[in-house]
Design brief:
Blueprint (H helix, E strand, L loop, with lengths): L8 H10 L13 H9 L9 H11 L3 H5 L31 H20 L7 E10 L6 H9 L6 E12 L2 E11 L5 H8 L6 E11 L1
Helix pairs in contact: 1-3
């Protein structure tokens, strides 16, 4: 998907419109395509571009190391020359003009600094992308209120994404809503239990899609 120069307002508006009913640039999980678009932006979109801003905050919640591990074609995510990469900015070898002892000392110091920097990188947090089908009792259910109630569920490790209403028949529509969870903190059982507490609005909850990130 091409949006043009994402440092211009017109291109960011196109991105906002594209994300109106999508959680990610491609599919139901973050990929290298999200990183490519994220890196192409000059910063967070305006508050009025709420879909693009919601997506931007979600991608920004991942560390640079986590984003580099997203699946997809990494060649499309080369937002800066390799010389700017944190892992490549350490010269492990001294200048050829220095004497052997001095060159060896500099090499060892830089090697140690490089290893310390690598050791400090945060470990990847296991996450999953989940799409839920939330079904109402009948066609008179206030779906806007249902979505508001679902999104009111807040806990550490849970981030709500895009949603849409999907017809199921007889004038009834279900709420299909996506979220990203940290596996160690939030599971599908928790989500189903919390959502079904809104018993006046919610008949049932099903997991429509589940994918490890």
């Amino acid at each position: 998907m091409s949006f043009g120069d994402l440092k211009t307002e017109g291109a960011v508006k196109k991105l906002n419109a594209y994300l109106a009913d999508k959680s990610y640039i491609e599919g139901y999980q973050p990929t290298a395509a999200d990183v490519a678009v994220f890196d192409a932006l000059s910063g967070a979109p305006k508050d009025s571009l709420n879909h693009a801003l919601r997506w931007y905050k979600h991608i920004a919640s991942y560390s640079k190391a986590e984003r580099s591990g997203f699946p997809g074609d990494k060649s499309k995510n080369a937002a800066a020359p390799a010389a700017n990469d944190d892992d490549d900015d350490v010269d492990l070898f001294g200048s050829d003009d220095e004497n052997d002892a001095e060159a060896e000392r500099i090499k060892q110091e830089r090697l140690q600094a490089y290893q310390e920097k690598k050791a400090k990188k945060p470990a990847l947090v296991a996450k999953s992308s989940i799409v839920l089908d939330v079904k109402p009792w009948d066609d008179e259910t206030d779906m806007a209120e249902m979505e508001r109630c679902v999104r009111s569920i807040a806990t550490d490790g849970l981030l709500w994404g895009a949603s849409k209403l999907v017809p199921v028949g007889y004038g009834i529509k279900k709420l299909q809503i996506g979220c990203v969870v940290e596996d160690d903190k939030v599971g599908t059982d928790f989500l189903e239990e919390e959502i079904t507490k809104f018993e006046d609005l919610v008949q049932s909850v099903d997991v429509a899609a589940f994918q490890k990130i």
